[in-house]
Amino acid sequence: MTPTGLHTEARSGARPLNEPRRAQVSKQLSRLMATAAARRLGICLLAAVILAIVTGPPGTNAAPTSGFTGSLQFPRLFWFLGAGGVIFAVVSISQGFGGPTTSAVSRVRSEIVRVTAQRTMRLALYAAIVAIGFIWVSWISPKDTWKPGVCIEVGCAFAAMELVVYLFESQSLRIARLGGYALLALYGVLAWMHNPVSKYLNTIGAVPHSRTLGLLLLWLALGLAALEGLLFGLAFVHRHVDTQRGRRLFRLGGVVLLVYGWLMWTTWSAWRASTPHSVAHWFASVHVLPHSRTAGLVVMAIGAVVVVYVLVAVAVDLVRALSGSASKQGNRFEFAGITKQTKFAYGKTAITIAALLVAIQWPLHMDPGIQSILTTQVAIYVLLSMGLNVVVGFAGLLDLGYIAFWAIGSYTTAYFTGALPIQPPFILNPFWIIPFAIVAAMLTGVLIGTPTLRLRGDYLAIVTLGFGEIIEIVANNLHGVTGGPAGTPGVIPQFSVHLLGVNYGWTGTVLPYYYLILGVAVVFMVGFSFLEQSRVGRSWTAIREDEVAADSVGINSLKYKVMAFAIGASTSGFAGVFFASQVQSLVPNDFIVQTSILVLVFVIFGGMGSIAGAVIGASLIQWLPQYLQVHSFQDYQFQDEFIYLGALLVLMMIFRPQGIVPSRRRRREILLTEEGVGHSESPGGPVRSTSMGETLPSSYGRLSLDEPGYIGPETE
Amino acid sequence: MTDATPGIAPATTDDVVFSVQHVTLRFGGVTSLSDVSLSLNRGEILSIIGPNGAGKTSLFNCLTGVYTPQEGSIIFTPEHGHAVSVVGRKPYKVNRLGVARTFQTSRMFSALTTFENVKIGVESKQHTGAIGAMLRLPRTRREEHESDLKTLELLKFVGLTKRANEISSSLPYGDRRRLEIARALGTNPEVLLLDEPAAGTNPAEKVELAELIRNVRTQLGVTVLLIEHDMKLVMSVAERIIVLNFGQVIAQGSPAEIQRNTVVINAYLGAPDSDEDNGTEAL
Ligand SMILES: Nc1ncnc2c1ncn2[C@@H]1O[C@H](COP(=O)(O)OP(=O)(O)OP(=O)(O)O)[C@@H](O)[C@H]1O
Ligand SMILES: [Mg+2]
Questions:
Q1: Residue B69: CB within 6 Å of ligand 1?
Q2: Rounded to two decimals, what is the model's pTM?
Q3: What is the ipTM of this complex?
Q4: Whose CA is nearest to atom 18 of ligand 1?
Q5: CA A87/CA A287 separation, integer angstroms
Q6: Hey, where are the domains in chain B?
Q7: Does domain B16-107+187-276 have CATH number 3.40.50.300?
Q8: Distance, CA A218 to ligand 2 centroid (Å)?
Q9: Per-residue pLDDT tens digits for A254-269
């Protein structure tokens, strides 16, 4: 930037002097500042200075400004400015400088993409990430022993992910799956055995030493592999069962298996083996026909399946022939680019799996304190944020009172466990309250949503904001129902399940909660991503982009908006059950409006409409205050978080308005809006309203003079 | 859908799809439609022409439920089923009756691909709900498959197969128009209302468009109501023409009759001797 600035400065000096010099300079300056890159550089450097001041030493009473000057001392300030410059460079490279540099930058960027597409480069990248992660981990926690283990695990996760990508690229799903089972089995063996290798792995925390776990994993892997084999066998049968000979062969095989199994089951060989030199004795001694009733049953079952399968195939063929329907049709629908899975999608799956592995393994090594934060502060908020993403991201509705549904879920739990002053008709364990909480939150959502969603987006924001406040005020003041500001009088019990021989209580440590929520979150993630790619998700996109057009193709926008609202509300209520039974006592202060805004920030920060974004946004930002508390700047207060969050959001809106990991559609929308093509950026939409209160196309009533084919009267 | 009736439009008034009687629409002091009566016969291609601000688009909005006229009735008669009044019905419900439309300025879902745009139209009458979608139940998958096939068929019909995976806002103007037609056809309509489909297209595209409109009628058997400023297109496609001016029907008849009609010529060029108010009142 500086060279250009100097250049124009020099040129302006050579201009005729009919303009005052000051005006010229300020004109040049404003022209310079008009470029995006200059603005960005200015913001980065300014932010660096502000950060330097904020984090500086405090002033004393004697010299109040000493803190200020101290924080701007030279070597210190240079560090901050340098960091600002680095951030500027990174952002500029990823965004383009604008103007003539753009093509060069995009060339650099495509070069980066090309390089990371190579496996070796990617491996190097993983190594770097693991190394940086190691440093970061040693920074956030002083606890030492598990660090190498965690890093090895993260490395393994990357390796596994790479392996998955490789196997997917090689287009053989079966080999991929078998590879996965082999890995699982290896892990099981390592956990099971007791030799130097597994001992070492145990000390660094990569593989726990547990015979039961090892055996369990081993059996799991073997079982999966066996299932795979069975499926393969069935596919093989299926392929050959159409020919007469193949059919006869399989029927024969099935019958042989049946007989063999029957012989085993009757322990024929054991009975006959008592006679020496008998055939049965010989069979038993070479283990061709071991005597085991169970094994016999299994073999018989397999034989029966094969026989039945062949018979069914024959029957199906018969029916087909009789009904005269067409011959077998491939019902796989092939169309280039629509159902074709791209490598990109495989990569995404691989990254998700790797992240999941980290999410499973990592907390095991943490302090109980951090585990509890991960559960109550992070995992629950991940759930909340995923639910709000459906409302804000998918359907484009601005919900500012989202936490109210969380409160409803929580207080429903408190009510049915008998922890409130008013007593329920029957007392349940929190686990069984989940459906009640979901229904309660959903009903409230529908009740609030149905009248409001008929109106334009802004009204929804206002009503939900008010609703959030009302819930908090009600919780504070209805002493007889909620226990008032002091909180619930009774204690909400923890989860426990007693069903079909499973007896489990979530007492003691917090980790089981973490894993339960993790499992639920994964289910929600899958469900919501199916939802997004379905008819419902597309209808939401249509409504978000252009409600008038959506109406014109028969989409009932009110219905879909209420649906999104209800899904969000029920997710929130669901999270409330976990929260209530984990903290065991509720105070209205847990449900203040700021929390709604906070969850909204997660969604916007992560990238509206992106499930991964919601998860990442919630985990990163919820981690932030914990991080700040451990490595506190001077006098860090809990409320200070919002200052940092505000700054983060402002920066975000300047540099990356679409969020960290935006959804493809949303990113496109935002780009289009910046070009002035699209309609909606904010929830609320593009539509103007008229004096009649109707919604109209924004082009309404405009004359089409500039369009060819116009034959109207000549305008005067 | 109606049977294909190529050639001459049925002249009988028995088989009326849309019957508009004495419709008046006002916006404050502005009267965009005053006492408009017309009827659309099943299987015909009817064109509505008129100078800017004549009320053509307003009429479309009344027919599709976007506007509610202050006076008059609009009756839609589906091929199978009872006649229903469109007045006061929500736009999406009107679409479900079998009326699809395009817009004067194209209104695609610009962040979606061509394929997805059309698929949204096709899917709008399916039954998959949120729970089915989240669990990917068999019905969801079957419906998804069906709508994929139908979408492909429609893209082929309008000639956009090659652009199926492009983002719709990157399409050239003419393709956008055809995309909107495909999306509207996806809802399986009996009547298709086209609001200036040729605006912004080049002469070659106009020829293709005329062909497409004819195919909509002959191959799909859909009745077409067409607003268009391009006289060449109108004359080559329409079987009947209705002329609007200042919110009133000033003439109707075959293309040849309209071309000769002095009232129409005056409306377009401005009546030479009288001022406009008197001129229209006299008609
Ligand atoms: N929502 C509205 N509010 C106020 N006036 C309106 C509204 N809609 C239409 N009008 C007025 O009604 C009249 C008819 O408009 P309309 O858009 O129907 O004309 P048109 O025949 O479609 O013209 P064009 O050829 O330009 O598309 C115009 O005077 C217009 O300003
Ligand atoms: Mg118009």
A1: no
A2: 0.66
A3: 0.88
A4: B55
A5: 71
A6: 16-107+187-276
A7: yes
A8: 71
A9: 778 877 777 776 665 5
